[in-house]
């Protein structure tokens, strides 16, 4: 399994991925799920991948090296469209979608014959000079959706454990480093609850309009910041939990009793033993 | 969808369930997922259900009313085994497993013909006089596993959002009301991140060796304790998040820098634009 998250803010973009790949629980490997594509001062793009590793690697290979001539640029020029000449992230995402369809055409039937789903999901985001930053979620059919101010983050892979903290913290106005911290907390919860997600992590923080990747780090268990965050989050979360009063049943003296059975809804059905029933 | 959680402690048992049922997102109903079976001073049992509602309701119906004559008690007596005469929770769980198989026999083929999975999962726990408390997770094949000191809680339904806090807090020695609080926090995270889980909640807290259910409450949005917990947890979680330092990149002055690119692992692959490559 995998966990990847990407966040789009006014200040920039945050990308975070784990690196565990497993087939069953006894075949665990480390594969990096992040690729960075940079043409300094012109474009900066990041690809995160989850799903079948062979599909994801093939898609990445094609995206790096192949000109996709079946997709003409929107501007009508005759040369094939690539992620290097696309004039918008939308077109670059179309190239990626096309690469996914290319691999589906090549491998889909054979995978189906082996009862393997054509399962891949990709997060692709960045900025090309001339437009703002954009962030896309690309599905295994090659179609995609784009992040908006209302939905400023995407997750792929084992996404549920780490979603609550993102739901609580992320909105487009928070600073970049705060979003990076939030992504790391989200990853930490996922690492704690799911064995199929593992270190090291790849983190990229992109400053809007910089068109270069200066903030890129691989985080393993020796990383001082991640260790601090992991320990402090655990300790302080526990302190918050302890600071909340326990529920008190009827007769308690707290202001917030867990009042029983006189609310709007009836109490749950209690079935009495047959011989206790009065006929 | 559904979210149910049950926790087994030395001090007793905690059961919590939501009440949302949906078929797609435009057909949402309220169905309670908790049933309490009590023979005062003799046995107290709680059943939580997730999965296909028609299967769960059928299983509950059978469990309440039908003697399962195909399962003889372990003690060799000739009368059929029921949840009311079972001398152990293990036997009661066998009755439940048998009820699931009964419904599978009755409905399985027709469901399969309609391309509907025979999908049900059940948590069943309680105490029968003469033995300690026990807690079981019953699968759709009628087989089951039992909670232990190492794994003192079970979840069914939409379980992932609410698992991290259980992983951090629950162990068999914590007090009952603290475990109830933990279950409610777990439910709160799930409610926040998944539309298919909804109020009201059913909560039962069972004191070990009491053989009766005095602490049973239905919690809706007017419940003072749940509102307090929901608000305070959100506020304080945010305070903890804010109290952790943001990551600092090279050149920062904190003790815990997010050091870049000189760790054990190489940085992620960065692909340069083709024309930037030096041949």
UniProtKB/TrEMBL annotation, chains A, B:
Annotated region (Disordered), positions in chain: 255-279
InterPro entries membership: Ntn_hydrolases_N, Proteasome_sua/b, UCP009120_prtse
GO cellular component: proteasome core complex
Key word Protease present: yes
Origin organism lineage: Bacteria, Pseudomonadati, Pseudomonadota, Betaproteobacteria, Burkholderiales
Gene3D superfamilies referenced in this protein's UniProt entry, alphabetically: Glutamine Phosphoribosylpyrophosphate, subunit 1, domain 1
Species this chain originates from: Brachymonas denitrificans DSM 15123
Any one GO biological process: proteolysis involved in protein catabolic process
Keywords from the named record: Hydrolase, Protease, Proteasome
Any one Gene Ontology molecular-function term assigned to this protein's record: peptidase activity
Protein name: Putative proteasome-type protease
């Amino acid at each position: 399994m995998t966990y990847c998250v990407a966040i789009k803010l006014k200040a920039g973009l945050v990308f975070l991925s784990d690196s565990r790949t497993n087939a069953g629980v006894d075949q665990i490997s480390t594969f990096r799920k992040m690729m960075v594509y940079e043409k300094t001062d012109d474009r900066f793009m990041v690809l995160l991948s989850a799903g079948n590793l062979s599909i994801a690697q093939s898609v990445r290979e094609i995206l790096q090296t192949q000109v996709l001539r079946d997709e003409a640029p929107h501007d009508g020029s005759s040369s094939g469209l690539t992620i290097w000449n696309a004039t918008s992230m939308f077109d670059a995402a179309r190239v990626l979608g096309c690469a996914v369809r290319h691999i589906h055409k090549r491998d889909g039937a054979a995978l189906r014959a082996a009862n393997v789903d054509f399962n891949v999901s990709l997060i692709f985001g960045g900025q090309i000079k001339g437009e703002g930053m954009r962030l896309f979620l690309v599905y295994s059919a090659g179609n995609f959706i784009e992040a908006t101010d209302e939905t400023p983050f995407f997750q792929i892979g084992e996404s549920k454990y780490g979603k609550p903290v993102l739901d609580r913290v992320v909105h487009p106005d928070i600073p970049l480093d705060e979003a990076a911290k939030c992504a790391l907390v989200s990853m930490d919860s996922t690492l704690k609850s799911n064995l199929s997600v593992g270190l090291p992590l790849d983190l990229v923080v992109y400053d809007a309009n910089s068109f270069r990747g200066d903030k890129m780090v691989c985080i393993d268990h020796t990383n001082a910041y991640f260790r601090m965050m992991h320990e402090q989050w655990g300790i302080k979360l526990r302190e918050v939990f302890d600071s909340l009063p326990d529920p008190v049943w009827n007769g308690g003296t707290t202001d917030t009793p867990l009042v029983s059975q006189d609310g709007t809804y009836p109490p749950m059905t209690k079935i009495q033993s047959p011989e206790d029933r009065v006929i």
